[in-house]
């Protein structure tokens, strides 16, 4: 009997295999793969090229602001910049959404802004300090809603990011009226009329009278880019995302 029992077990196993039956699957839970950032967010957060391009933009802007400031009196001029993805970096927000499998909502964005946790982009603090050293003002014109302005100012202060005024959106998304208020001296109490001599942004709409239609124009339309207008790369979001693909 001791010899037959192992033989019987072997025959039963062979019978199961030949009949197509499979052994029971493992009861261990499946391994959960960590969600990955999309390629654009990954490039922004982790590439040397992104770091180089942002620093390049601010380095070249610094050269030109020196030249432009030399022709003007102290306290009469300003540099106008966007905030998100131009001065401050919200990629931690994008990362948190990805890890939690969430899409951005107004409520989640409100909570992120209230945390005041967006750090400065590389090279931007040095550039803004240079503007102040040369006698200029730093005017931040952002399409964050006006309710976000107190937290935005606190975010800047938390990271020692220089600024003189932050103008948030009260209705119209166009920035031209706010730039005009800087020129007329009505932007903020105590702020004199200022000539904007240089713009920095991550969206084509961060520059006067530009929108996505300029992509159909000749090179002459872009003549001021690299001398008065400076673009910081942002492949994650922007007005470009509404353009048709071809």
With helices defined by DSSP (H or I, 4 residues minimum), what is the helix count? 8
Overall tally of domains: 1
Q: Gap between N and C termini, in Å?
A: 77 Å
Provide mean pLDDT, rounded.
90
Write down the overall geometry. Answer: globular
Q: Could you estimate the helical fraction of the residues in percent? A: 25-40%
Question: Quick one: CATH class?
Answer: Alpha Beta
CATH superfamily: HAD superfamily/HAD-like
- At CATH's second level, what is the architecture? 3-Layer(aba) Sandwich
Word description of this protein:
This protein is of the alpha/beta class and 246 residues long. The protein has one domain (39-234): 3-Layer(aba) Sandwich (Rossmann fold). It is 38% helix and 12% strand. It has eight helices and five strands, in the order H-H-H-E-H-H-H-E-H-E-H-E-E. A five-stranded parallel sheet has the order 3-2-1-4-5, sandwiched between helices. Strand 2 (137-145), helix 7 and strand 3 (165-169) form a beta-alpha-beta unit. The termini are far apart. Mean pLDDT is 90; it is low at 1-26.
């Amino acid at each position: 009997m001791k010899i037959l029992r192992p033989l019987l077990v072997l025959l039963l196993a062979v019978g199961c295999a030949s009949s197509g039956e499979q052994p029971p699957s493992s009861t261990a839970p499946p391994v959960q793969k960590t969600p990955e950032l999309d390629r654009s967010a990954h490039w922004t957060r982790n590439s040397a090229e992104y770091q180089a391009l942002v620093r390049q933009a601010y380095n070249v802007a610094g050269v030109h602001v020196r030249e432009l400031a030399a022709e003007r009196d102290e306290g009469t001029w300003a540099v106008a910049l966007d905030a998100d993805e131009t001065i401050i970096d919200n990629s931690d927000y994008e990362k948190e959404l990805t890890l939690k499998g969430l899409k951005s909502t107004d409520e989640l964005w409100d909570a992120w802004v209230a945390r005041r946790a967006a750090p400065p982009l590389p090279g931007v603090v040095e550039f803004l300090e240079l503007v102040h050293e040369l006698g200029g003002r730093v005017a931040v014109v952002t399409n964050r809603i006006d309710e976000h302005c107190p937290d935005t100012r606190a975010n800047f202060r938390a990271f020692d990011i220089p600024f003189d005024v932050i103008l948030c959106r009260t209705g119209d998304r166009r920035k031209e009226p706010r730039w005009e208020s800087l020129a007329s001296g009505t932007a903020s109490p105590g702020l004199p009329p200022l000539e904007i001599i240089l713009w920095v942004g991550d969206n084509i709409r961060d520059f006067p009278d530009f929108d996505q239609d300029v992509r159909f124009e000749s090179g002459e339309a872009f003549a001021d880019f690299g001398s008065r207008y400076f673009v910081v790369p942002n492949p994650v979001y922007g007005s470009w995302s509404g353009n048709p693909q071809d």
